[in-house]
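Bumping my old thread because nobody answered last time. Still need a sequence for this structure:
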């Protein structure tokens, strides 16, 4: 396989609570076209539990994945026999779900006699901006989802440097936990953002953990505890109390993310003086308008560029997996059927390199 040929890729994503499949075409010039992108969220299955239940997630993937793949093929108008390769998330994530997607991909690859590409879910997020916006390497990625919060320098396909991450909760998880203690339902991010609109962000001065330190790490658990203690102190909460707590929490995390991103861009400019500084945001929290507005200000001040892919491609989906698979395949990468599913798989490991030997 060379970089010149146009390729059709099926991408499968099952690492959390979205069962997703997509067909993407990567053309001769390396541009991507999404022909279908089918996502079935399991929100209803998990709603009663206030979070994702791994066993239920795996079962739902088993039940739905075949249908979702068939739908992706139908909507693209491309038969599975006509795809050039099968890509699937092989980690990191909830292992039961990853196994369902990866095993399905192996079965398809074997029966259709197509190459298999095992994709790191985080690489899917990291490369999406190249599919949607044709972003050139290098760039800085801020991944903020329910499971991850990290800054990653993206130098190339398979070539990542992790500059910082969370030492406790992910940012989306912090939104979800705050929503839960305010009885706002799950997922919490959109609910917190909505109710915060009628709240006073200055009423409570919640802590900004680690903010004075230079490291590019996050910590949200102390903030979450401060929110809980405040809510307990005021109980029973009026609607205005809930709105004020939500707004004050959102103000705290916005300041944290803005400050960290400013520092991360400074580092980018210092370490890569010849590159155009670019910040790419991925993950569900990218939907937050207040955080997005703060980031826009930060990049403007830094003389940098901000890229936020459409939100449906920031959250978990099959197109990002298909695209990451296509990028790897274009560089000659394919994986054997013995490739394993991994619950943990950081981006900055040598085995992410396109020419790494992994089993
Ligand atoms: O990327 P994603 O769909 O799933 C993974 O975690 O992989 O991200 C979901 C997370 C949830 O924690 C959700 O509460 C958060 O993104 N989220 C938001 C918003 N929309 C979704 N957080 C803050 N503000 C939002 N508008
Ligand atoms: Zn994700």
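Sorry it took so long. Here it is:
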């Amino acid at each position: 396989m060379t970089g010149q040929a146009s390729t059709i890729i099926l991408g499968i994503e099952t690492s959390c609570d979205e069962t997703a499949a997509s067909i993407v075409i990567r053309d001769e010039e390396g541009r991507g076209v999404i022909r279908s992108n089918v996502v079935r969220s399991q929100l209803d299955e998990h709603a009663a539990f206030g979070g994702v239940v791994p066993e239920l997630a795996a079962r739902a993937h088993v039940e739905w994945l075949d249908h979702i793949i068939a739908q992706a093929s139908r909507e693209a108008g491309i038969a599975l026999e006509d795809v050039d390769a099968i890509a699937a998330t092989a980690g990191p994530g909830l292992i039961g779900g990853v196994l369902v997607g990866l095993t399905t991909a192996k079965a398809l690859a074997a029966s259709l006699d197509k190459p298999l590409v095992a994709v790191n879910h985080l690489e899917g997020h990291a490369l999406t901006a190249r599919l949607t916006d044709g972003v050139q390497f290098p760039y800085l990625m801020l991944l903020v989802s329910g499971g991850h919060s990290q800054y990653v320098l993206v130098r190339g396909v398979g070539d990542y440097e992790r500059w910082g991450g969370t030492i406790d909760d992910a940012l989306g998880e912090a939104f979800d936990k705050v929503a839960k203690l305010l009885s706002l339902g799950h997922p919490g991010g959109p609910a917190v953002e909505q109710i915060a609109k009628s709240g006073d962000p200055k009423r409570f001065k919640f802590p900004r953990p680690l903010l004075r330190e230079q490291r590019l790490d996050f910590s949200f658990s102390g903030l979450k505890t401060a929110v809980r203690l405040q809510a307990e102190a005021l109980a029973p909460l009026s609607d205005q109390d809930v709105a004020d707590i939500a707004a004050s929490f959102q103000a705290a995390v916005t300041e944290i993310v803005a400050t960290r991103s400013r520092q991360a861009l400074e580092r980018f400019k210092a370490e890569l003086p010849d590159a155009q500084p670019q910040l790419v945001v991925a993950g569900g929290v990218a939907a937050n308008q207040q955080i997005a507005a703060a980031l826009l200000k930060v990049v403007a001040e830094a003389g940098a560029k901000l890229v936020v892919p459409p939100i449906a491609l920031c959250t978990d989906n099959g197109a990002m997996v298909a695209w990451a698979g296509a990028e790897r395949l274009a560089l000659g990468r394919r994986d054997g059927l013995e490739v394993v599913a991994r619950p943990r798989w950081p981006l900055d490991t040598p085995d992410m390199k396109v020419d790494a030997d992994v089993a």
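The first helix runs from residue 43 to 47. Let me know if any region looks off to you.
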